[in-house]
Design goal:
Oligomer: single chain
Number of helices: 4
CATH architecture: Orthogonal Bundle
CATH topology: Multidrug-efflux Transporter Regulator, Chain: A, Domain 2
Distance between the termini: 37 Å
Largest sheet: 2 strands, antiparallel
Radius of gyration: 18 Å
Shape: globular
Strand order of the largest sheet: 1-2
Helix content: 55-70%
Strand content: 5-15%
Structural class: mainly alpha
Length: about 100
């Protein structure tokens, strides 16, 4: 039997900015809860005035925060710490990969 490789070509869609209300709808949270996340520094808008606008990649971050909070029972300060550590681990892994080349 012949083996065929499946090649998937992705189209890079330019990141778009979403409003707080769009983010709330996408993640299923109230906009006020997301405003609290902004105040606590868990999420940062790319544009703050006249209204907060986010890259659409923030959806994954908010979902991670919610999983940490709901599944592991972490408080918001703990979620912030874990998110910072995860980002730092990712940076270190990228540095390690570049040094190994």
């Amino acid at each position: 039997m012949k083996r065929y490789d499946l090649v998937i070509y992705g189209q890079h869609i330019e990141d778009r900015l979403i409003t707080l209300n769009e983010l709330a709808r996408l993640v299923g949270l109230h906009p006020e809860k997301l405003r609290r996340y902004i105040v606590l520094g868990l999420i940062d808008p790319d544009v703050e005035q006249p209204e907060p606008l986010f890259e659409d990649s923030i959806v994954a971050r908010v979902c991670k925060i919610e999983r940490l909070k709901n599944d592991l029972g972490l408080n918001l300060a703990g979620c912030g710490l874990v998110m910072d550590l995860l980002e730092r681990i990712t940076q270190l892994e990228e540095q390690l990969r570049s040094l190994q080349r």
